Amino acid sequence: MQKRNYYFDNAKFILIFFVVFGHLLQSFIADNEIIHALYKAIYTFHMPAFILVSGFFAKGFYQKGYLRKITKKLILPYLIFQLIYSVYYYYLYGQSQLTVDPLDPHWSLWFLVSLFFWNIMLLGFSKLKAVTAISISLVIALAIGYIDFISNYLSLSRTFVFFPLFLLGYYLKKEHLSSLFNVKARSVAALAFVIVFAWFYLNPDINYQWLLGSKPYGEMGAASLAAMGKRLGFYLLSLMMVFSFFAFVPKKQYFFTDLGKNTLYVYLLHGFFVKTFRESPVQDYFTGPESYLLLAVVSLLLTLLLSSKIATSFAQPFIELKLSKFKRLSFKVFSALKFYKKKLQNG
Asked: I want to staple 55 with a disulfide (CB 3.0 to 4.6 A). Which of 34, 101, 170, 276 is the partner?
């Protein structure tokens, strides 16, 4: 049980690092084919893996008060940050008027809305056998792309497109992952990463929008029957990459393990840094291979900062609607100041 907790906390921390890194990389994908290929490779697994892990931890949805709990955990922070981001964009982009639309999620906030819907949808799908439930959700996900008005509005497109991954996580057991933790599996996983990166590099015209799940087929120029086959192919690609990623996640406790519990904080807060970075002249200094490595270091530092006790203490009232972390931090600071004051007086 303990190893399982370490494992998934490690997975979540590493995944949120890739989320931050991928968002920072987006500014450079048009200018560098290697970065573009890396960007696409990251997007094949980072959010799909997050979604699968979210499904894995949704097994207690039938418990009393669960729906009230996830509403408070997901919808209230969503509404708060939807307002905050609206004000932030108003000043960042110099918009002529402030627009707040709670039904059209800003940027990364789609995940909170979709995660809420996925938990609600479990009420019906969990009554089915695993194969039946996943098959029905897959058919819906493939067909939904032909309905043009289902896009970012209420995050409906992503909700349906990624629901099969959430369901797969719900039915997943930790024993299913045990076959990944050996040299042979990791060798195959490493080869998969290399092949997928090379494939994207050699085929730069592949539209990365297929990996986002946010647009109908028509907007991606593929409204024919073949579009379902293409989406199915990307599902298989993502599954291969997700389990290849899981093969490399460490099971022991490390300095970042506990921070894996704070991924929601990083997810909601990093957008302010990323959007500011994209609009600032600072990004003009990132022009070569060395600077992109520096960008990875910046992503790691930002992930560590936003998941730290200091950041979570100040952000907790907006994300968890609590003050417990802030009170503990304030008490420690007050105690430290009191201690040093007494020490100075005695010295």
From this structure: 170
CA distances from 55 to 29, 172, 196 (A): 31, 8, 25
CA nearest 4: which of 168, 172, 131? 172
260: CB partners within 8 A, 6+ apart = 8, 9, 10, 11, 12, 13, 16, 307
Average pLDDT over the chain, rounded to whole?
91
Q: Taking a C-beta distance cutoff of 8 angstroms, is the pair 70, 116 a contact? A: yes
> pLDDT by residue (tens digit) across 118-175?
999 999 999 999 999 999 999 999 999 999 989 889 999 999 999 999 999 999 998 8
Q: Which of 8, 26, 57 is nearest to 212 (CA)?
A: 26
Q: What is the pLDDT of residues 107-119, one digit of tens each?
A: 899 999 999 999 9
3-state helix, strand, coil in the chain (%, to 5): 75, 0, 25
Q: How confident is the model at residue 221 (pLDDT cuts 50, 70, 90)?
A: confident
Say how many C-beta atoms besides its own lie within 10 A of residue 124's C-beta.
Answer: 10
Handedness of CA 259, 263, 268, 273 (dihedral sign): positive
* The two three-digit tokens of residue 116, written as one number: 């809420």
Amino acid present at 72: K
pLDDT above 50 (res 81): yes
Contact 45, 245 (CB under 8 A): yes
b/e string for 69-101 if b means 16 or more Cβ within 10 A?
ebeebbeebbeebbebbbebbeeeeeeeeeeee
* pLDDT tens by residue, 261-276: 999 999 999 999 999 9
Q: Which two tokens stand for residue 296?
A: 């990875």
Its sign, for the CA torsion 25, 28, 33, 36, is positive
Quick check: helix, strand or coil at residue 272?
helix
DSSP 8-state symbol, 74:
I
**What 3-state class would DSSP assign to 219?**
helix
Provide CB contacts within 8 A for 158, sequence distance 6+: 110, 111, 114, 152, 212, 213, 214
Position 207: which residue type?
N
- Boundaries of every domain in the chain: 2-307
Which structure tokens are listed for 30? 């048009």
